[in-house]
Design a protein that fits this description.
- The protein is of the alpha/beta class.
- Helix content is 36%, strand content 21%.
- It is built from 14 helices and 19 strands.
- A six-stranded parallel sheet has the order 2-1-3-4-5-6, sandwiched between helices. A five-stranded mixed beta barrel has the order 15-16-17-19-18. Strands 7-10-11 form a three-stranded parallel sheet, with helices on both faces.
- Helix 9 (247-255) packs parallel to helix 10 (274-282).
- Bound molecules: S-adenosyl-L-homocysteine, iron/sulfur cluster (SF4) and FE3-S4 cluster.
């Protein structure tokens, strides 16, 4: 276990970076407008908010569109092959744009860059990319930009450090005034056999609880109604730092801040403690919505995946949650076509999904990732088999979602109003406490407020209601 000072970057380093941001702003010959294109999970979305915060401090403004920006940066994901291909496809699209606008600056960052050999590949195959960096040196963005603009040379910097550090006090430009992300921990130590995240995000590092609480209080003062705590495995919060609060303790303290809604993701099923369930049950502000990725329903596969729970243990945890929080809405992630998955083993995932009754599920076809243990396994499942299986699983979950959503009809939910419907300005849309989109007739003044809505009907992925 480490002492806190060993994990946080020195304040002087961040101060130095902020000086460089201002130095960049003073350059006569620099891009004026930017566009940040984000792929992947909420971590990346929040990293992009930090990029935008830094870009603002560097004197740049958000462009009207990607086509008109002087500077375009891609914050990439590599969790599955299609995520990576989508990102690269769009980078290549800029190559054409750059032919007509040679002053356009292009950068690539994020998880994809952090893979071994990526830096060299970008240098060789993507000569129109001006700047590339990984996840561990995001905080050095201004420095790297200065270098690229001043030297008029390409800059590629990917730090191959396993450990990683925590940058505090970087500027952030949040995308919404009503809900906000708060990172509580970085990295992942779990090494699920299929997953690249531990390789590209480094080891688990928890932010100091005092900093998290301070950030939450500040957001509350600013009028934020909902916070989402982020980490690849939030249940391990604090385990890496001496004397730190546990995740359950942190939640209990955050509940006292007064923000109306607290959400968190992602929870690893292996360490959903009774203490955590009790804190949720007793809290006033923690939403009764839990994303609890199970990945698979078969014990042999769960073991091969290194998930460190069995089907029985998972179901026992679900029962323990529902015993204390009966209205808990559960959602999950599922993988089909893991190497060696037999038809019977796949059926175990189908039956588990029916047994739990998730409100919704993200289903993924297994995608081999270079460097992971499963990536080298024999018996990779042919695409057509995986496709058939995922279709079946999606159909099963669709039925269950339909049934669960129908069960909400007649209930009164609180809805944080986010926007007017794109099709009809008299229809408002927002999320209920279960994180399900609810549409209802209303006016734009309601945006940003939490209102009471009686659910009157259920669609495939949304609910409909009217204000009470
Ligand atoms: N830390 C989170 C999830 C991170 S990635 C957790 O542990 O739950 C989000 C989801 O992507 C995972 O839950 C998993 O379902 C899926 N995923 C990760 N690696 C994958 C791979 N190689 N192929 C297919 N799906 C994958
Ligand atoms: Fe990947 Fe597993 Fe870590 Fe989630 S817990 S990020 S699936 S290694
Ligand atoms: Fe993708 Fe990186 Fe998130 S690989 S899922 S953006 S942590």
């Amino acid at each position: 276990m480490k002492r806190r000072e060993a994990i946080e970057l020195p304040a002087e380093e961040i101060e130095h970076q902020r000086v460089l941001m201002r130095e960049f702003a003073a350059l006569p010959d620099r891009p004026r407008t930017y566009c940040v294109v984000t792929y992947g999970c909420q971590m990346n979305a929040h990293d992009s908010e930090t990029l935008e915060g830094m870009l603002s401090e560097m004197g740049m403004e958000k462009a009207e569109s990607r086509e008109t920006a002087d500077f375009v940066i891609f914050n990439t994901c590599c969790v599955r092959d299609n995520a990576q291909r989508r990102a690269l496809g769009n980078v290549v699209w800029l190559k054409e744009l750059k032919k007509t606008r040679p002053e356009l600056m292009v950068a690539v960052c994020g998880c994809m860059m952090q893979q071994p050999g990526m830096g060299e590949q970008i240098l060789k195959q993507y000569p129109f990319v001006d700047l590339a960096f990984g996840t561990h040196n995001l905080y050095r963005f201004a420095q790297l930009m200065l270098q690229a603009v001043k030297s008029r040379r390409r800059v590629v910097e990917v730090l191959q450090e396993d450990e990683g550090s925590i940058p505090e006090e970087l500027p952030v430009r949040r995308s919404s005034p009503y809900h906000a992300y708060i990172t509580i921990m970085y990295g992942c130590n779990n090494f699920c056999s299929y997953c690249i995240v531990p390789y590209v995000r480094g080891r688990e590092r928890s932010r100091a609880s005092a900093r998290i609480l301070e950030e939450a209080r500040m957001l509350h003062e600013q009028g934020v109604k909902e916070i989402m705590l982020l980490g690849q495995n939030v249940n391990s919060y604090g385990l890496d730092a001496e004397g730190e609060l546990s995740f359950a303790q942190l939640l209990a303290r955050l509940d006292e801040v007064g923000i109306e809604r607290i959400r968190f993701m992602t929870s690893h099923p292996k360490d959903i403690s009774d203490e955590l369930i009790d804190v949720i049950a007793a809290s006033r502000h923690i939403c009764h919505a839990l994303h609890l990725p199970v990945q698979h329903g078969n014990n042999r596969i769960l073991q091969s995946m290194n998930r460190r729970y069995t089907r029985e243990r998972y179901l026992e945890r679900v029962a323990a949650i529902r015993a204390k929080v009966p209205d808990m809405s559960l959602t999950t992630d599922l993988i089909v076509g893991y190497p060696g998955e037999s038809e019977e083993e796949f059926e175990d995932t189908c039956s588990l999904v029916s047994e739990v009754g998730y409100d919704s599920a993200f289903t993924f076809i297994y995608s081999p990732r270079v460097g992971t243990r499963a990536g080298d396994m024999p018996d990779q499942i042919p695409e057509e088999v995986s496709s058939r299986r995922i279709q079946k699983l999606i159909a099963i979950q669709k039925e269950i979602t339909h049934r669960r959503y129908a069960g909400y009809i007649g209930q009164v939910h609180s809805v944080l109003v986010e926007e007017a419907s794109k099709r009809d300005e008299h229809q408002m849309a927002g999320k209920n406490e279960y994180n399900i989109t609810v549409n209802f007739p209303g006016t734009a003044e309601l945006i940003g407020q939490i209102v009471r809505v009686r659910i009157t009907s259920a669609g495939e992925s949304t609910l409909r209601g009217e204000r009470v």
